[in-house]
Design a protein that fits this description.
single chain, 351 residues, alpha/beta, Aspartate Aminotransferase, domain 2, Aspartate Aminotransferase, domain 1, 8-stranded mixed β-sheet, 4-stranded antiparallel β-sheet, 12 strands
C-alpha cells in the first residue's frame, strides 16, 4: 500500500469504471493460474467487494416480477439484493453435493445464484455433471448464472473442480470473486468476469454507481499479484487455516463425541456443527446462552427459506475459525459444551 501511495499518478482524473488496466491484467493471469478461468481483460470488472458485484448483477439482469433461483439454505444477503429489484426468490434444496439441479430443471426463472465450489453454508461441491445440467438449464431458459466463488482458495480435503465459467457453453455465467477472505473484508475489492455481450452494460452500470473502485487499493493489489506476494500469502493462509480447522474438529470431537455431526469442513473458513438430540426448538436458547459466555456462534436456521418445508430438526451452528488460534478454539468449545449442558439441564432435552 505504501508503494501504491508513493507512486505518482500519470494524471489526476477518473479512471476506467471497469478498474485499472494494470489490476485487470494481473487478475487475468491469477484467475488462469489458480482457477483455469480464461477471459479477456475487458471482461473483468473491478467492484467494491462482492456486495456491489451482486448489486450490479441484480440491477442489470432482473426486473420486477422475474423469478430467481436461490440455494436453500443459502447466502441471505444475495437473496435480499436480488429481491430488492422486485424479483421473486425460488428456493431449491441442496444436498451433500450442493444444489439439486434436477429440481432446477423444472423451474422457469431469469437467474440462478449458486456457490458451486463450496456451497454456503453446508459446504457441498457441485459435481461436474450437475454443473453441465445447470448450464443446459440456463441455455434453455435464456437465464443467467451468478457463480459466487467466494472462498475457492481454501481447499483441504477435496480436489479443485473447474468453475462453471471454464466449462463449455458457459456464455451465460457471471463469475464473482473477492479478496475479502484472503486479505481482509475491510479492503473492499472484488471482481466480476462477465460474458462478452454484457461488457458495455456492466461498465456503464459501474460508472453510474460510483465512477470506479478506489485506485490506491487497486494498485496495491496489482503489485501483490504481479510480484507473486499475493499467491505466497494465500498459500501461508491456507496452511494456517488448515491447522485451525483441525484444531476445531479435534476440540468438537473431544467435547461432544458422536453427539456432533460436522458438515462442510473440507474447504472454506467455516463448518456446520449439527447437535444430535438437541431439538431445533433449543437453537435460540443455545445461541443466547453461548453468547452470554463470550462464544460467538451463529444458528443455521435463518439461512433457510422460511416459506418452505425444508427445516433442520436439530440445532445447527455455523462455526468460523479463521480469526482464532488453537487456544481460543479450545476455550470456545469448552464454553459451548457448558452452554449445551446448561440447555440440556434446564430444558430436559432427551439425547
Amino acid at each position: 500500500m505504501v508503494a501504491a501511495i508513493s507512486r505518482k499518478p500519470v494524471h489526476l482524473a477518473y479512471d476506467d469504471p471497469c478498474g485499472s488496466l494494470r489490476l485487470r491484467r494481473a487478475l487475468q493471469g491469477y484467475l488462469w493460474r489458480s482457477r483455469s478461468v480464461r477471459c479477456h481483460v475487458d471482461q473483468i470488472v473491478v467492484v467494491n467487494g462482492s456486495q456491489q458485484g451482486l448489486d450490479i448483477c441484480s440491477r442489470l439482469l432482473l426486473d420486477a416480477g422475474d423469478r430467481f433461483v436461490m440455494e436453500d439454505p443459502g447466502y441471505q444477503i444475495a437473496k435480499v439484493v436480488f429481491a430488492a429489484t422486485g424479483a421473486i426468490a425460488v428456493p431449491v434444496p441442496v444436498d451433500a453435493d450442493g444444489l439439486d439441479t434436477k429440481r432446477v430443471a423444472k423451474i422457469e426463472a431469469r437467474l440462478a445464484y449458486v456457490t458451486p465450489s463450496h456451497q454456503y453454508p453446508l459446504g457441498g461441491v457441485l459435481p461436474v455433471a450437475r454443473r453441465y445440467e445447470l448450464l443446459a438449464w440456463a441455455r434453455k431458459h435464456d437465464a443467467w448464472l451468478i457463480e459466487d466463488d467466494y472462498d475457492s482458495e481454501y481447499r483441504y480435503d477435496t480436489k479443485p473442480v473447474p468453475p462453471l465459467q471454464t466449462l463449455q457453453d458457459s456464455g451465460r455465467v457471471v463469475y464473482l470473486g473477492t479478496v475479502s477472505k484472503t486479505l481482509s473484508p475491510t479492503l473492499r475489492v472484488g471482481y466480476l468476469v462477465v460474458p462478452a455481450g454484457l461488457q458495455s452494460a456492466f461498465a456503464a452500470a459501474k460508472q453510474v454507481m460510483d465512477r470506479h473502485t478506489p485506485l490506491l487499493e487497486q494498485e496495491a493489489l496489482a503489485a501483490m499479484l504481479e510480484s507473486g506476494t499475493y499467491e505466497g500469502h494465500v498459500r501461508r493462509a491456507r496452511r494456517r487455516n488448515a491447522e485451525r480447522r483441525e484444531s476445531l474438529l479435534q476440540a468438537l470431537h473431544r467435547r461432544f463425541g458422536d453427539r456432533v455431526r460436522v458438515e462442510g469442513a473440507a474447504a472454506g473458513l467455516h463448518l456446520v456443527a449439527w447437535f444430535e438430540g438437541l431439538p431445533i426448538a433449543a437453537e435460540d436458547d443455545l445461541v443466547r446462552t453461548a453468547r452470554s459466555k463470550g462464544v460467538g456462534v451463529y444458528p443455521i436456521s435463518p439461512l433457510f427459506d422460511q416459506r418452505t418445508a425444508v427445516r433442520p430438526d436439530v440445532v445447527g451452528l455455523v462455526m468460523g475459525y479463521s480469526a482464532l488460534d488453537a487456544k481460543q478454539i479450545e476455550k470456545g468449545c469448552k464454553l459451548l459444551a457448558d452452554a449445551v449442558e446448561q440447555i440440556d439441564r434446564l430444558a430436559n432435552w432427551t439425547r
